[in-house]
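Worked Example 4.2. Consider the chain below.
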Amino acid sequence: MADIKPFWQNYVDGTWIDGGAGKIAVVNPGTGEHLAHHALADAADVARAVAAAKRVHLSGALTAMRPVERGRMVQAMGKYLLDHIDDLAPLLTLEQGKPLWEARVEIQGAARYFEYYGNQAETVEGRSIPLGAKYYDFTAYEPFGVSGQIIPWNYPVEMTARSLSAGLATGNACVIKTPEMTPITCYIYAHAAEAAGFPPGAVNILCGYGHDAGAALTAHPDVRQIVFTGSVKTGIAIATSAAQNVVPCVLELGGKSGAIVHQDADLEAFTDNVRWGIYFNAGQVCSAMSRIIVHEDRKAELVDRVEALAKSLSVGPGLDRPDFGANMGPMVSDGQRDRAASMVAAAEAAGAKVVTGGRKMNQPGAFLEPTVLSDVTADMVVAQEEIFGPVVSVMSFKTPQQAIEIANGTPYGLVGGTFTQDIHQAMADAQSIRAGQIFVNEWFAGGVETPFGGYGLSGYGREKGREALWNYVQTKNIAISIGGGAGRS
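Applying the procedure from the previous section yields the following structure tokens:
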């Protein structure tokens, strides 16, 4: 195992500090062994971080400069990540579990957010509104001030980048609550902010429990905007807390996304999409392809192909898998692994067929076999609730309308997909699937430039793309009387 510090601190107002709530143990899910301790923040630590961020905002340090200058600073943070990827990637693998090459992909994706939103900083422009000769009227966009950002454990580096880059680009000071299970790698943002020239207090990083530090952050009256990615239950609690201070939220919650596979689909190409759609990051992806909805005439062939894919994956510790390929790491913890395994067992008891996998592996670490379930029906729990693991459920349909009904038959609506050679069918599905993003013939098509967010229990607001910028600013209208005297009509 690579050398690693035994204790990691929080970062508040430009200073590394211990936590008022003590410390928390971080476990390497690839071995089950203790990795390090991290400082654990309490409400007082959160208050200190928010005060620092508010001071920066009120000073005008982030808003007085030309946006292009701020954008260059944001871009510099992304370059800092790439410059330190060789040190950061192994650390991410050790605390989160993903293969080393996946960790590098995550860090590269994080850097891309800083590149993109750094470029967008000078494009947040208002508009003039014609009101006749007696008025000059225009709008301006202003940052909320203090942005509170609560980060999930599955992509701690990339998800922090997604909100931090947009928040800083629009002139907000940010307080980040890192995930308890994967808090260590977020240290890089303190160094990156300093290297880019951001003042102390512009970026604050705290590890803490959701019921303590997270609750304090969402309830703090000086936090004026909140971004959260995580479970529906926690998202509801955050939105309820924020509502007490009338604070807007961006909530990217769970998903139970379905891929419709029509009779004319290219199954060889689709199987490659399954590899990324459900087994990337051991299925711990909000937008994972957790349901395959296949035409009944192609079901047997598809199940055989997906079974072969699942069995071909090499599963083990992430540091032992440095190269791109057919491999998978552990889940993030024994608890997450056991929950997924229990859902597979319950599905089998309800009548689903375990084609392959479904069991925890007989080795140290939080490993679950890549799993394929067949004969899943829409009323089963496994077809309705998010597993967040390497488990795909295969369902069948007879008619396109039935496929849409199955796809839309959950309370979620994060992403959906359709695989067909018929452009008319593809467009009909894209219009009918109730989800915030639709993939046609490629799961995870799109990029940082494309808006991402959900319908229903999958949340509200949009991350990624230019649409995300409007989550971090508020509109001010300025009306100037230039004609002398009233001109109302």
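The mean pLDDT is 97. Residues 261 and 336 are 29 Å apart (CA to CA). Compare this with Example 4.1 before moving on.
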